[in-house]
Amino acid sequence: MLRPALFLDRDGVVIKETGSYVWQKSKAILEPDLQRFLFAMQNFFSIIVVITNQGGVAKHLYSKRQVEYLHEDLMERAEVAFHPFEVHWYFCPHHPSVGACFCRKPDNLHFQRSIYTHGIDPHTSVMIGDQVRDMIPARRMGMYTLLISESKIDDPSVNLSVTSLSEAQIHLQQRLAFDFGSQLT
Ligand SMILES: [Zn+2]
Fold this sequence. Notes:
Elements: E1 6-8, H1 34-41, E2 47-53, H2 64-77, H3 79-82, E3 86-92, H4 109-118, E4 126-129, H5 132-141, E5 144-148, E6 160-162, H6 165-179
Parallel strand pairs: 1-2, 1-4, 2-3, 4-5, 5-6
Helix pairs in contact: 1-6
The chain binds zinc ion (ZN).
Zinc ion (ZN) binds next to loops.
């Protein structure tokens, strides 16, 4: 039986967007609404997939191991929030200035890989990100997409534009309570 999953972008959803690469634990600040959001999502999902572009690896700003250390640290810090879920992290270490790949969003290799590896049903899954490039691969796979943005973005890849994780929570609670188990889009 395929499962619905909650797909999250990292910077801007799990941790605060700083506008630059984050690999140091001290610079990675958890989104204050994350815990409340994930607590509400426990009713609907048992699996979380975080997919993030980490082009700083290709630029030699930090290593793959440093990215993994940070993700392990975030898992510890957000333990209460992540605890009920099976959580999988995927990152693209490449950057177009250094070389091409198929895993950097908006490409969808990590989406495909996670869906097949973890038995996920994309049509009952949700993606939350703060850039249109997070929405494109998710929509291509058939997910329902929520873009967190200060201004409303009209884009064919965006199902709904919201201003915060709390607004995403209110919307999803209503929508999933009504539609749970059925195709969202
Ligand atoms: Zn890549």
